[in-house]
Design a protein that fits this description.
Elements: E1 9-12, E2 18-22, E3 27-28, H1 35-45, E4 55-61, H2 67-79, E5 82-88, H3 95-101, H4 103-106, H5 113-121, E6 128-131, E7 134-139, E8 152-157, H6 171-180, E9 181-189, H7 194-202, E10 206-211, E11 218-223
Parallel strand pairs: 4-5, 4-8, 5-7, 8-9
Antiparallel strand pairs: 1-2, 2-3, 6-7, 9-11, 10-11
Helix pairs in contact: 1-2, 6-7
The structure holds S-adenosylmethionine (SAM).
């Protein structure tokens, strides 16, 4: 059974940005090759920038330190998008630890630190209109209990890896994600494991292998087909 970590050790990754490492889990929140590089490559380039239209509903599985959310907020403003972002996180990272990872400063926007921390610390299940481009809701719901019907255009599937939380990489969970996406919508993840791909296909997705960043050969983008 998964026990959420209580030991959060800030760790500098190869691109200079910070992640958290937990010795209890034997896992970190991002690739050691670069937290920001990974987030940009997997979720922004392969996900957000490929989504059609200017109004995009994003579901994140695993809010963690909020790096994907912060980058999405920044890119939404740069590109004139309107993003509604719902992030699942039953085990939130303490605010003091979020300050130590200091993502806003690492992204060259130290003036955004306060608003970012406020957004992360706000009450769960309440939508916050963070800017004209970005509406954010943190939800305490586990992905194992989550259900939505055709409400999202994009899923950022950023759970801990299958070795740590195998129960999150199953056909049942991917069925929930498939159902939550509108037809034509996509799920992106850093993971490239064969059993995960098979679970996605069994849940109804068509799955592409994409080039990953350093240290990993591939990542997946799974699409809910337009027609069943
Ligand atoms: C790899 S980290 C996410 C990194 C994050 N996206 C970021 O930018 O920092 C995985 C996250 O999934 C969360 N998690 C664990 N069990 C979960 C569950 N059942 N449902 C949703 N999220 C879960 C963990 O608490 C952790 O914060």
């Amino acid at each position: 059974m998964y026990l959420p970590p209580t030991d959060f050790l800030p760790l500098r990754t190869r691109d200079g940005s910070y992640t958290l490492r937990s010795e209890q889990l034997g896992e970190q929140y991002h690739s050691l090759h670069g937290a920001v590089k990974e987030s940009r490559h997997v979720y922004i380039e392969a996900g957000l920038k490929q989504a059609p239209g200017e109004r995009i509903d994003v579901l994140e599985v695993g809010l963690g330190t909020g790096l994907n959310a912060l980058l999405t907020w920044i890119i939404a403003e740069e590109r004139g998008l309107q993003v509604r972002y719902v992030a699942l996180e039953p085990f939130p990272v303490p605010t003091g630890t979020l300050r130590q990872t200091d993502h806003a400063t690492n992204l060259g926007m130290p003036d955004r630190t306060h608003a970012f921390i406020e957004m992360m610390a706000a009450e769960p299940e309440v939508e916050q209109f963070v800017s004209e481009a970005f509406a954010f809701t943190r939800s305490s719901t586990s992905v194992l209990d989550f259900s939505a019907a055709a409400e999202f255009d994009l899923v950022y599937f950023d759970a801990f890896g299958p070795a740590v939380q195998p129960e999150l990489w199953t056909e049942d969970v991917f069925r929930r994600m498939h159902c939550a996406l509108r037809p034509g919508g996509s799920l992106v993840t850093y993971c490239a494991k064969g059993s995960v791909r098979r679970a996605m296909i069994a849940a109804g997705f068509s799955v592409e292998r994409l080039k990953a960043m350093w240290g990993k050969r591939e990542m997946f983008r799974a699409r809910r087909p337009l027609h069943p």
